[in-house]
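User: I'm writing a short report section on ligand binding and want a predicted complex to refer to. Could you take this sequence and iron/sulfur cluster and write out the structure as tokens? A short remark afterwards would be nice.
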Amino acid sequence: MISDQLYCEALLDFRIKNNGYENVEPGEARRIAQEVIRKLRLEGKKRLVRFPIAGKVKGLYFVMSPDAMIVEKGKVKAIVRVRLRKSLRIYESDFSLLYIMGLVLNEQRLLAENAILLVIISNDPDSLKRSLDSLANLANKEVNFAEAIKTLDENSKAAYRLYDREAALALLEKIIGYWKGERAPIALPSERKCSSCPFRNLCPYKHF
Ligand code: SF4
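Assistant: Sure. The structure tokens for the complex follow:
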């Protein structure tokens, strides 16, 4: 839901009102991450993991499911987001969800100092799988992220940011008003988003 909200709050609002969050299937990128991590667990490698996270931040209760995380000494060193799409360009908005996840982990005292937010984009499922495999191998050593992202598959691209609590809180401030019922949803229309939006026929804000 937060991912939809950061994409276009009007879309989130339409989806909630149309029961669009019932029986949501994970996307392909997330399924690939699940598969790679399941295989690692079977091999006894436990530093690239995934598990749901939950916690209260500024009066809002979050339940979230990171695509993957790298754990060092019992704390989350990196929160990983994976995407499959044609363009390998990485946008600042790709990191937004990770900042909110960082806040939730931080409240639970599960976030390591100098934690990393890592985005991996690929235009091909096999490439994404190979990239996650590379990351998984690195995650069993001390990870140097600047070096790690150079080792990913050539059809994937990755970028990372240092988690910044102030930036995360500023982002939370932007979304919290909707959930507290203090304001109407804010639409973020664009030709790209609206042309593939399932609610474009209902939406007064759509970009023509
Ligand atoms: S049509 Fe555009 S503005 Fe309206 S909900 Fe969809 S993405 Fe948002």
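A remark for your report: The radius of gyration is 17 Å. The longest strand covers residues 111-122.
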